[in-house]
Design a protein that fits this description.
Strand order of the largest sheet: 1-3-2
Distance between the termini: 42 Å
Largest sheet: 3 strands, antiparallel
Strand content: 5-15%
Order of helices and strands: HEHHEEHHHH
Helix content: 55-70%
Number of strands: 3
Shape: elongated
Structural class: mainly alpha
Number of helices: 7
Length: about 170
Amino acid sequence: MRLPLLALLTHGPAHGYELKQALEQLLGGAYPQPNVGQVYVTLGRLEKAGLIEGEDVEQSGRPNKRTYRLSAAGLEAVQSWFEETTDEPRVRDEFFMKLALAPESGLADPITLINKQRRQYLTTMRGLSRLAAAEDQENKFSQLLIEGAMLHLQADLDWLERCQEELE
């Protein structure tokens, strides 16, 4: 959450709720919605780290609102983030660990685990299909996120098929 918030602040100062809304609008319903409390805790940490600077803005008849703006160090951090590639190999997959340990433990049948996981992936895919149909078609990032998730699920389903072939 840190770097996405910093990236949003490149447009100018904002308060936490505005940042939360901007993320939700940009990413749509497929992306887990950030908790406003999580946003404010993260902003506090970013401020302590010197990546953003906060300022209290007086509001009539309401408590002060704290707005945040990007510091030079924050801008540098965002620029570095965009330059880095994302390396997330799935070798630490929890399902695979269960599958590998099931025969060792004697507590679960690997084929039963595969079938349960397959049903879960198919349920998730159906949910994403419904979400894609309901989502704003103009929000290209949301549609791309949903499409990417569905492609990953299809690859996972193909991999489950491969696992079952090997283990039967």
